[in-house]
Amino acid sequence: MQGKPYTLRVEEYYSGRFREGTVLLSDEEAATLVRFLREEEQEPDIYNSSLETCHPELYHKLDDAAVPMMDQLEQEQPEGMYKSWIPEELVNEAFESGLSHISTLVVTESDTAKAMGSGSLPVLATPRLAALMENAAYKAVSPILDDGETTVGGELSLRHLAPSPVGAEVSATAVLERTEGRKFVFRLEARQGDTLIGEGTHTRFRVNTGKFLAKLK
Predict the structure, then answer these.
(1) Averaged pLDDT for residues 188-212
(2) Domain 96-214, what fold?
């Protein structure tokens, strides 16, 4: 059967070693995988999802393509535990990778390092910039969440590159780069006018609000 080539990635669980190859999928098979991710299962690792149960023929097709790559990794360094991702192109389509949002802030006295206790100067505090970036990421994916869901921050890596005085307008842009199951990974940047004042990456997790809050009891 003819089809379009998609990139298939196999990764060893603990070392991060990986191999990439291709698998041919028809338009119908690709559409089925996108629907599977959107409606049935948000986990893109075929071995840790319900793909084998829901769509056994597709599961075996992806598995057959992944096995030779696992064999190569095993020959190099036996490890024994691997994951194989549904092609990233389809994961991005399912979870609308590329979603973005811009959050803005006019720096006030309460936003400064001096006021927040993170420094002694009357310039935009790094924690306040971090919060603005997180807000942009939170809002970028909010439109695709189901009722009763939200996202929570998991990791933030930030470089604060230049100071911003009181009265300056700062904008933070978050762009969704990829999804991994319930994990969203963003690219961040902040600007004051044309000047880049911050950049970084951020990870958020999709959660059920009720279940998440129940853990606090």
Answers:
(1) 96
(2) Thiol Ester Dehydrase; Chain A (3.10.129)
Q: How far apart (Å, rounded) are the C-alpha atoms in residues 2 and 39?
A: 27
Is the predicted pLDDT of residue 44 greater than 70, yes or no?
Answer: yes
Task: Name the residue type at position 59.
Answer: Y
CB 170 within 8 A of CB 107: yes
Q: Report the alpha-carbon distance of residue 131 to residue 137 in Å, rounded.
A: 10
Residue 41 has pLDDT above 60, yes or no: yes
Cβ within 8 Å of residue 14, ≥6 positions away: 79, 81
Average pLDDT, the chain: 92
- For the residues 45-54, what does the mean pLDDT come to? 93
Whole-number Å distance between alpha carbons of 47 and 59: 9
Confidence of residue 59 (pLDDT cuts 50, 70, 90): very high
Q: Where are the domains of the chain?
A: 4-94, 96-214
Residue 211 to residue 185: CA distance in whole angstroms: 22
Torsion of CA 181, 178, 63, 47, to 10 degrees: -20
Tell me if 176 sits within 8 A of 211, measured CB to CB.
no
Q: What is d(CA 126, CA 53) in angstroms, rounded to the nearest whole number?
A: 48
Alpha-carbon separation of residue 185 from 62, 135, 174 (angstroms): 25, 14, 10
Are 153 and 139 within 8 A, CB to CB? no
Residue with tokens 């999928």: 25
User: Residue 181: which H helix or E strand, with range?
Assistant: none
